[in-house]
């Protein structure tokens, strides 16, 4: 495999900026309310649309990895993203009840946080379990019976891992997501994400409508690294003329049209 980066401890996906928002800062914008969800022993940031309609299907958009490492490959002090693209996708989602879920240690002050939460263990069993518990809370708040999980970049990786352990996920949408972590780390010349689960090793329950979209010009998650795993997971695999960080929030109408649940 071609390698593009010098070896680093573990590459941070979709590092939009080396600047971070201060821990506890709200990602919510106009018309949204942010709050914290207690998920077992962890605390996760979340937000929901103030005027979100009721409905059977709740769309939960899971945030990307954020600021995992600095330019020298060292773990950052705070993984909170300066530009939460996952939240912007949630804001732009055009229909139905919608919620946003942050990743462990983003936007919150959690004494249990350690650098492994946003580096080698960012997709650990504990992280996936906490995300699933937080989604339980969001689902209860909305009154919905089923879920559409949407995730950009590392949020798509997390969405696939969560979907694999639930029976109420009707739709899974991943955007520019590394769905084969071993191949992704090897291509970048990065150390394996030891302690993390890999979507390449999981199977989704039957009946989940899946849409996996990759960016033709994505140099963080090139399509070739995820296509095989996406096809094995099932559903539709598309390659659009996008870069890693652009322009997913402008494609939500099309994403919605392509990710309707089975009746």
Keywords:
disordered N terminus; alpha/beta; 263 residues
Describe the protein in words:
Residues 1-10 and 14-24 have low confidence and may be disordered. The chain has 263 residues and is an alpha/beta fold. β5, α3 (154-163) and β6 (169-175) form a beta-alpha-beta unit. The longest helix has 18 residues, at 125-142. The radius of gyration is 17 Å and the shape is globular. The N and C termini lie far apart (42 Å). It is built from 6 helices and 8 strands. The protein has one domain: 3-Layer(aba) Sandwich (Rossmann fold). It has an 8-stranded mixed β-sheet, with helices on both faces. 24% of the residues lie in helices and 20% in strands.
Tally of DSSP helical segments = 6
Q: How is the CATH topology named?
A: Rossmann fold
Q: What is the rounded Rg?
A: 17 Å
The largest sheet, given as strand count, sense and whether it forms a barrel, is: 8 strands, mixed
Question: Strand tally, please?
Answer: 8
């Amino acid at each position: 495999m071609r390698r593009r980066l010098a070896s680093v401890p573990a590459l941070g996906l979709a590092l939009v900026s080396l600047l971070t928002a201060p821990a506890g800062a709200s990602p919510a914008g106009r018309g949204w309310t942010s709050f914290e969800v207690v998920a077992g022993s962890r605390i996760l940031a979340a937000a929901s649309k103030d005027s979100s309609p009721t409905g059977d299907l709740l769309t939960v958009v899971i945030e990307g990895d954020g600021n995992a490492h600095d330019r020298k490959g060292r773990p950052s002090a705070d993984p909170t993203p300066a530009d939460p693209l996952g939240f912007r996708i949630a804001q732009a989602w055009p229909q139905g009840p919608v919620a946003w879920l942050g990743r462990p240690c983003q936007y919150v002050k959690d004494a249990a946080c350690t650098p492994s939460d946003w580096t080698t263990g960012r997709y650990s069993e504990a992280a996936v379990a906490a995300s699933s518990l937080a989604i339980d809370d969001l689902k209860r708040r909305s009154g919905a019976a089923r879920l559409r999980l949407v995730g950009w970049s590392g949020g798509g990786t997390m969405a696939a891992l969560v979907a694999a352990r639930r029976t109420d996920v009707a739709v899974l949408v991943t955007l520019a997501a590394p769905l084969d972590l071993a191949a992704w780390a090897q291509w970048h010349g990065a150390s394996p994400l030891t302690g993390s689960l890999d979507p390449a090793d999981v199977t989704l329950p039957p009946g989940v409508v899946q849409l996996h979209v990759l960016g033709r010009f994505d140099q963080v998650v090139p399509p070739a690294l995820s296509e095989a795993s996406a096809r094995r997971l099932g559903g539709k695999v598309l390659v659009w003329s996008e870069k890693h960080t652009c322009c997913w929030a402008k494609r939500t109408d099309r994403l919605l049209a392509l990710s309707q649940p089975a009746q």
